[in-house]
Amino acid sequence: MKFTDQLAAAQRGNDSLLCVGLDPEPGKFPAKWKGDADRIYDFCAAIVDATKDVACAFKPQIAYFAGNRAEDQLERLMAHIKRVAPSVPVILDAKRGDIGSTAEQYAREAFERYQADAVTLSPFMGFDSIEPWLRYSGKGLILLCRTSNPGGSDLQARQLANGDLLYEHVAKLAQGPWNTTGQLGLVVGATFPGEIARVRELAPTLPLLIPGVGAQGGDAEATVKAGFKPGGTIVVNSSRAVLYASSGDDFASAARAVAVQTRAALNAARSSYAAG
Ligand SMILES: O=C(O)c1cc(=O)[nH]c(=O)n1[C@@H]1O[C@H](COP(=O)(O)O)[C@@H](O)[C@H]1O
């Protein structure tokens, strides 16, 4: 099934716009596992089990696994998600971008080794760095556009000779000439609702991955208002606020409670939008 169809089905099935980000930091694990990188799989699997009927996607961030020499645990986690939540797509957050021959290897890593349904990519190296990924038909390719961090403005808000800001240009390319196969989406930070609205205007049909609610302070309601449109969905990611809702043995039930609360806030904003 295509990523966009999987996502639409999961959003309907779990009545959710919430993506649960899997950014495991052993130093923040509950006391019984604290500091133990061998428990990354156990921790993330418990979060998946507790939120699999609340999330429309999961987003493991590859650095948290690679940095802890835990790629094998990421493979096991991907297999676990496919087993217990087969209808919830997985976005591998890898932010890759490189020349074609290297991009081919990165694409093998994401889609063959880890079996991801979608991946985050940097568009900075241009279309030929995206092309190898397009050969994996139906997989989602989500390009960084207007990122959530303050330094995102350093380059993304620069004005080009044609008057567009760089992130606006990326949005236009992704909606238009680069989207030869319909696989592209865009990353826009929840910390910049004005820019989310502008990206939605320029890219009316692309799925927007919107990180930055929760720990980075982005507002759920403003995010939905700016980004959600019928025919143009959003996937709103929260990682730390869900994962580390409690540092006790109740961490999984606490994560679930925050996920349920966040889903409700997003849904309330979506219904008020639909009501006009
Ligand atoms: O591509 C991303 O997911 C991403 C893009 C962006 O602009 N900002 C951003 O925070 N992210 C990722 O989204 C997650 C945010 O985590 P929390 O701030 O803990 O919710 C991290 O995994 C980041 O790497």
Automatic annotation (TrEMBL):
Class of this enzyme: lyase
GO MF term set: orotidine-5'-phosphate decarboxylase activity
Residues of the Orotidine 5'-phosphate decarboxylase domain: 17-255
Protein's recorded name: Orotidine 5'-phosphate decarboxylase
Pathway involvement of the protein, from the record: Pyrimidine metabolism; UMP biosynthesis via de novo pathway; UMP from orotate: step 2/2
Keywords attached to this entry: Decarboxylase, Lyase, Pyrimidine biosynthesis
Species this chain originates from: Piscinibacter gummiphilus
Active site as annotated: K95
Signal peptide start and end residues: none
Coiled coil region boundaries: none
